[in-house]
Amino acid sequence: MQLSTVLNGRQVSLDIAPDARLIDVLRNELELTGTKEGCAEGECGACTVVIDGVAVNACLVLAAQVQGKSVLTVEGLASAGHANALQRKFVELGAIQCGFCTPGMLMSATALLARNSKPSHDEIRRALAGNLCRCTGYAAIIEAVAAAADEGGSAQ
Amino acid sequence: MNRPALLAPRDLAALAAALHRATPDSRLIAGGTDLMLRLRASGIRPDLLIDLSGLRELAFIRKEGGLVRIGAMTTFAQIQRDAMLAIHASCLSRAAAHVGSVQIRNVATIGGNVANASPCADAMPALLVLDASVGVLNRAGNIERRPLRDLLAEAGTTTLGTDEAIVDFSFAALSANQRSAFGKFGARSSVAVAELNGAMIVKLDETQRTITQARIAFGSIGPAAFVDDRVAAVLLDKPLNNDTIESFAQACSGMVSRSIPHRSSLPYKRHAVRGLAHDLGIAIQGAPMGSGAAEGFE
Hints:
The complex is a heterodimer of chains A (about 160) and B (about 300). Chain A has 5 helices and 5 strands, in the order ββαβββαααα. Chain A has about 160 residues and is α+β, with helices and mostly antiparallel strands.
């Protein structure tokens, strides 16, 4: 079937299997390998992407369901090769260890900051509850999101 | 490899037409958070997928007089945030807030939760105590109302036909003398599959002291969620206080022994359910967290 969607701000159209998962289309068809597959069952959040403004697990979404919607992946955060404020704070504050959870953390935080520009630490924790960090670097991740919010969210 | 056909109806007439083509091997997909996993785990290849996500008319929350109606494609994020439900169906509000993670709640729907019929589905005990009825669309395009309890069958199955789809839920809004609560017991405080869950509604007399009606439902104990009248009877004509909640907790323990006498999880669950009962009791008393008889475990 033909899938048409706005991906990272650009209109894309491609042929997909009707039962394909969004994560497989992103990684295998579109070669956007920033989105990671961890548990493949909606527990770890490594595959988090933002669809029409809300965070979802790409491993649980039927690709066909993003027809006509807007999909943002971690590749869509930087512009012209420059990391956005949120990404910079992750780097500056050591919120990245092995890095596997980072794309998912960034996307959950992006969805949070888009609807709540000044989240409390508690709100940040709740927004990231569906993202696991096996390195357990949660404290630095929460600080990075809070610092990005202080600088005006994820505005690029 | 055989790929399924995919239909994405945009209105109920198109959905009815799609149901005409459904066979026992076909699947309806709402948010997909359960079905996508089931398809991968089982290796089942449906002949037809009917994608319900384009049915915008089934994503709604309304109060019509004393009746609350919720469309089948309403997400748990929408239910959790709804101010009217927080007052008139607080047990369902709280159940929605306990489903999975933010990412899951953003796509998972109340219709999908019921149709998937997991024994630990969080919406189920809440909808059961609310005595919800379910609007079911058939392939002729007619909508029939059935009590939710009539839909429940064995774990993971419902009595819905392959050519039927849930379109909405409806129940009476809680009145001023009623209070409701939802409780869940899992391996961690969030993003956990329920090992036990339950919901309760009590009605108090005018003095707000004595319980005149009670309705309790439990999930994750046996193959399907259920309403238990024997446990509810313990609360009748009693004051809503910690002593009553303690006898309620003991009755819950007895209920687990009756419900799953041969399960290996019995010794654990008959003890753990006391914690759930106390959580429900605290929530229903409206006491702040951590006060009074907060600990369910000795």
